[in-house]
Each structure stands twice: as C-alpha cells, then as structure tokens.
Write a structure and sequence with these properties.
Helix content: 55-70%
Radius of gyration: 24 Å
Number of strands: 2
Shape: elongated
Low-confidence stretches: none
Mean pLDDT: 80
Order of helices and strands: EEHHHHHHHHH
Number of domains: 2
Number of helices: 9
Strand order of the largest sheet: 1-2
Distance between the termini: 69 Å
Largest sheet: 2 strands, antiparallel
Strand content: under 5%
Structural class: mainly alpha
C-alpha cells in the first residue's frame, strides 16, 4: 500500500506502518489511528478504502519526510551563512553541542576530508566563499584548492 508516496508492507500493523514514515513516532501514529477510528492491531492490507482515504487526508495536512529534512538542512545552512560557532562545527563534521572530541565522537570525526576542513576554515575567515561553495556542490575538487595553496607558497619562497 502507498501512503504519502511511500510503499508500506501490507503485513505491518497500522502503527508500525505509520512509524516507517519519517516524522511520525508511535504516539503520533496512535493519535492518527484514534482520529480515523482504526484499531491499532489492524493490518495495513486489511484497511478499507474509506479508512485509507481518512489516513491520507490526515497525513496530507502534516509535514512529513521531505519537508522536515528540508527545514533541518535550511536551518543548518542558515547557521553556516551566519558564520556561527555551531555552523562551523557542522562544516567540520564535529559534535555541535559542546561534547568533547579528544577521546570521543569517533563516528562524527571518521572519514572526514582534511581538504574540506581547510576550505571550511578559509570560508569562515572570509577568504574563499565561492570556492568553498563550488567545492561543496562538486564543481571543483577540494584537492585542487589545496594544490593551489601549495603553489602559491612555493612561489613566495622563490
């Protein structure tokens, strides 16, 4: 069965099926079932057409999946553009809310590209805003920026 454009297994209970949608937890799923007068142990495949239409009408008024993720990404991008400390931590891929990083946060730090970190640092210093944005969008590789910095340093030494 399709609910809000997502395929949900027909063998799931209604609550379990609703919680597969991003943005709906168990309490919200129970409230939706109560509003639609659907028993929570009913399987998704056993829903009548009327019950399905009630579910879809209630879910269409809610902000789910794409809208929540879009708002979250917009908030993070806003932090980055305002050059806040939290935005800087998001760019570097480090813990944002003040956790220690000397011994913990291995999952946040793992597989981070050092060239991207250099670009992020430069962006916050106001040096290469367009270059950083182009690197994030994949127009140029971050390594080309690092190589360019090395070339400039080598010219200064000569």
């Amino acid at each position: 069965m399709y609910i809000q454009g997502k395929v949900i297994d027909k063998n799931y209970n209604v609550i379990k099926g609703l919680t597969t949608l991003y943005g709906i937890g168990k309490p919200t799923a129970e409230n939706i079932c109560n509003n639609c007068l659907i028993h929570y142990k009913l399987k998704i495949g056993e829903l009548t057409y009327e019950q399905q239409s009630k579910l879809n009408s209630i879910l269409s008024t809610m902000k789910l999946d794409y809208h929540i993720k879009k708002k979250r990404n917009a908030d993070i991008f806003n932090l980055i553009n305002n050059k806040t400390y939290r935005g800087y931590k998001h760019l570097l891929g480090l813990p944002v809310k003040g956790q220690r990083t000397k011994t913990n946060a291995r999952t946040r730090i793992k597989h981070k590209n050092t060239q991207v970190k250099l670009l992020a640092r430069d962006y916050f210093r106001g040096i290469t805003k367009n270059r950083y944005i182009n690197a994030i969008q994949g127009r140029i590789s971050p390594t080309s920026h690092a190589n360019r910095k090395r070339q400039i340093k080598n010219k200064k030494k000569k």
